[in-house]
Amino acid sequence: MPRPSLIVFDLGKVLVDFDYSIAARQIAARSNPQLSRDRLFSDHAPLLFRYEVGQITTEQFFEEMRAITGFSGSLGDFAEPFADIFTAIPPMVELHSVMRKQGFRTWIFSNTNPLAVSHIRHHFPFFKDFDGYIYSYEHGAMKPDTKLYEVLERTTKCSGEEIVYIDDRPENVAAGAGRGWRVVLHESPDRTRSALRAMGLLNDPRCRSVYSEPERDSP
Length: 219
Description:
With 219 residues, this protein is an alpha/beta fold. The protein has helices at 20-28, 40-43, 45-52, 58-69, 75-83, 90-101, 114-123, 136-139, 146-156, 170-177, 189-198, 205-210, and strands at residues 6-9, 16-18, 86-88, 105-110, 132-135, 163-167, 182-185. The N and C termini lie far apart (42 Å).
């Protein structure tokens, strides 16, 4: 099998974890007392979808959220708690670093929004170490929409088996596989590592030591 030209990483739940309940709690603290923080983003998923496919601007998203919630602050007051929901997944950040050291080009391929990207760019140093970024909000489509996959192929000038694609969503992975990409369904760092090793992409013993799991005591 030929060496791929490109390793494509999903962002959320692959390189960074996220929890919208963190944002909901902080936003609810400055909103109408009757607001249900437990259902804030699930109840208004269509609004978030419109934001993440670029149908509305950040300012429009904030104004609609303020009308829904009664949020008492400014856009700046809203932006920080809304976006401060991420934590890095260290084994995957390290895996990306190893792939770079082995000479692979790497790209981010994400359903996301401008506030999230701005926050991650400013708080997670590893994020600058990619060759390029494809965001749903910049192209009017979300994975697994074919349009976004076509954007990545056109922008990177890669297709088929030239691309290795890592994502935690089965439907997104299936869409990549349907285009002939080599795909990895991310379920854990260990399984993703094993899948890449099976493809012949992590054969360097140094990579093996970086990713060796700690030994567990026998019961």
